[in-house]
Amino acid sequence: MSGSVSKGQGVFKIALSRAVFRGKLTALMRQVKLGIIGGGTVGGGVYEALRRNGALMALRLGVGLEIVRVAVRDLKKNRSARIPRALLTADWREVVCDPEVHLVVELIGGTTVAREVVLAALRLGKPVVTANKALLSAHGKELFAAAQKHGTNLYYEASVAGGIPIIKALREGFVGNRITALYGIVNGTCNYILTRMKLEGADFDAVLADAQRLGYAETPPDLDIDGHDAAHKTGILASLAHGFWVNPKTVCVEGIRHISALDIKFAGDLGYTIKLLGMVKKMGPAGRVQVSVYPTLVPNAHVLASVNGVFNAVFVRGDIAGDALFYGRGAGRDATASAVLSDLADAALDLKFGTKHRLPPFVPHQRSGAVAPIEEVVSQYFVRLNVVDRPGVLARIATLFGQLNIGISSVIQPEGHEGKSVPLIFMLHYATHGAVRKALARIARLPAVKARPVMLRVESFE
Ligand code: NAP
Ligand code: HSE
Fold first, then answer.
1. Residues 179 and 151 in one domain
2. Which residue's CA is the nearest one to ligand 1's atom 8?
3. Which atom of ligand 2 is nearest to the CA of 211?
4. Model pLDDT, residue 78
5. Are residues 305 and 183 in the same domain?
6. What is the DSSP letter of 449?
7. Which residues pair with 371 in a beta bridge?
8. Is there a single domain that holds both residue 61 and residue 190?
9. Is the CB–ligand 1 distance for residue 429 below 6 Å?
């Protein structure tokens, strides 16, 4: 049986038959040969990490890992990783189809070429390690099905929360639990920006530039700051936790572009820290789940409020284990490389012992599973308005909230903001997102309201 890879209009015939590849594996001896697609931040990090700890891993695993080919886009580029020129090629197909390559590592990002790379490798029966959450979010169902069909495996520990082994924890450590809630600070770039804005009063754009320089941000960084990267990761965690592959289009996503220094300060005065929080919560018995990502007010007393900088944390509530917290670096070269190494170890052992399905990468088992529409999700809220400071305005706004059955738990008009218009902060009781959105649309139309209302959810972690 032989595989094929499309290349432009024509078809690039793969010389390697799967039978020959399997023959190579039985003669595997003690060395698994890797082909890496992508030699940037993460690819370079994996190369350097294996140089440093490859011998140690070989001792621990009883099998060595050797990088034999690396595909990049630009052969002339200066690289911080010391990848020998002789390993480089600008054609990923050469790497995937090389009969010497047992295991393919996809580290280019994006969803088009990356999908081709992963499918081509899986069709050859070669296991694939990827850090690409955008790819999994968009095409996970297809890729896991391809891995199963071709009797191989897809490993993706590095796709969520950098150096934190959260995929393994959910698949293995929590296998005996129903996950009733999961909260994640899963985007290092956003957490780095929000932390520096809060602690240093730093400017959004300047901190984002630092995050890019440090290799935390995606290309383009809009994926981070508009919440999509966190949504891809939260969707992957939700899928693992609830047994149906979450369609990214059903996830409610809001980023951090609109978070101002004023909101960070007022939230702080009220005892909260603003975090971009991924949430996966069981809603009732019918398999419906809240899956969302939005900036959230976290009580300062909660452990997630003190997860700062590029660090990520995932808080998991299992029906048997209770609460557990996973904390670590969420982005950057070495943290991500560490997660890739962990997958390489699993993949190498699976190859060595021929246990391709020791642990299936993802098993759909929840037929009635569905993401609940965000309009039905209930939470508490922080609302900041900018209003003309005159009698009757507060009463009018309170009436509009009351008409939609939304209770106000407190109102604050911070001092020191005297002028034509002043900030007015409302903390609201539990209400559906739909009701609050409707009330704010009405409130925004009042002549006394001078700017678009800011609405942030407040999480109590109950
Ligand atoms: P990056 O620094 O931009 O590196 C991408 C690499 O892919 C570069 O070496 C590039 O080649 C190569 N490449 C792009 N298109 C290619 C093609 N068609 N053929 C061959 N090579 C190609 O990106 P990164 O930060 O390493 O991210 C890689 C993946 O890891 C992404 O999926 C990302 O979401 C994920 N990830 C990143 C982090 C992080 O902290 N950076 C953390 C977790 C997961 P050139 O070098 O020649 O341009
Ligand atoms: N851009 C991502 C982040 C990289 O900032 O979290 C890690 O997945």
1. no
2. 40
3. 5
4. 94
5. yes
6. B
7. 289
8. no
9. no
Domain boundary among 91, 125, 155: 155
Give the mean pLDDT of 124-130.
97
Which amino acid makes up residue 279? M
**315 — pLDDT class (breaks 50, 70, 90):** very high
Among all chains, which residue has been given the structure tokens 């996830």? 251
CA of 122 to the centre of ligand 2 (A): 26
**Mean pLDDT score, 239-268:** 95
- Shared-domain flag, residues 420 and 309: no
Give the C-alpha separation, 106 to 129, whole Å: 6
29 conformational bin, left if phi > 0, alpha if psi -120 to 50, beta if neither: left
Q: How far apart are CA 129 and CA 103, in angstroms?
A: 8
Residue 23 pLDDT exceeds 90: no
> What is the DSSP code (8-state) at residue 158?
G
The answer on 130 and 188 residing in a single domain is no
The two most distant CA atoms of the chain are separated, in Å, by 84
Pick the closest to residue 297 from 160, 442, 425 (CA basis): 425
Catalytic residues: 233
- CA 121 vs CA 1, 42, 116, 360: distances in Å: 14, 20, 9, 17
pLDDT tens-place string over residues 138-159: 999 999 999 999 999 999 999 9
* CB proximity list for 123: less than 8 A, separation 6 or greater: 3, 4, 5, 146, 150
Residue in 69, 87, 94 with CA at minimum distance from that of residue 7 = 94
Instruction: Give the global pTM.
Output: 0.92
What is the rounded average pLDDT of the residues 282-311? 94
Provide the domain count of the chain.
Answer: 3
